Amino acid sequence: MKLVIVESPSKAKTIQKYLGKDYHVVASKGHIIDLPKSEIGIDIENDFEPKYVVSKDATLRSLKEAYKQADELILAVDPDREGEAIGWHIALRLKAIKENGSIVNRGRPVKRIVFTEITKDAIGKSIKDSRTVDINLVNAQQARRILDRIVGYKLSPLLWKKIRFGLSAGRVQSVALKLIVDREREREAFKAEEYWSLEALLTEKKSAKQN
């Protein structure tokens, strides 16, 4: 039996119908591993090493039970860096791959499939064109998540203390807000000055010889 893991339960039902009885399609319902909510979860002094925790214990237990019956793992999570990281985390917890994305047991394949539409043809083609986990995409997601956590976790409480409770800071939103504020200050500091635009239609004066 081949275990297929998607993110959405509704997708799981549709894909199960397309693939048939040789496949077992289950949903992770998004991330099952994440940074802890109670602390920053990043060892800043040790190369910014993330300290991940299981965020959905019941889902992980269910996936482990399903994987016990499978001879192949197919990661069909969303086709972006977030999905790539979700699949990587799941496969790691199932002990199907190593941290660098390589397969633990060659006799038990781990495949990554990508599709942008939920049709029988698209699913079939994605399985035919399967690949391994893209560790570069995984690292891109981890870098984004770590930056989000460092900026948000450190600056948001400062905003609550200095300005107003409930405000948030972020890797993208804070920079965008700074650009908007700078532009608004430029607009407010602008002083209108009177100026004139001159337009002239000139013709060449003919000399006496030309006459």
UniProtKB/TrEMBL annotation:
Zinc as UniProt keyword: no
The Toprim domain, residue ranges: 1-109
UniProt-recorded Gene Ontology molecular function terms: DNA binding; DNA topoisomerase type I (single strand cut, ATP-independent) activity
Domain Topo IA-type catalytic: start-end pairs: 134-211
Keyword annotations of the record: Isomerase
GO biological process: DNA topological change
A Pfam match: Toprim
PANTHER family assigned: DNA TOPOISOMERASE, DNA TOPOISOMERASE, TYPE IA, CORE
Name of the molecule in the record: Omega-protein
Record organism: candidate division WS6 bacterium OLB21
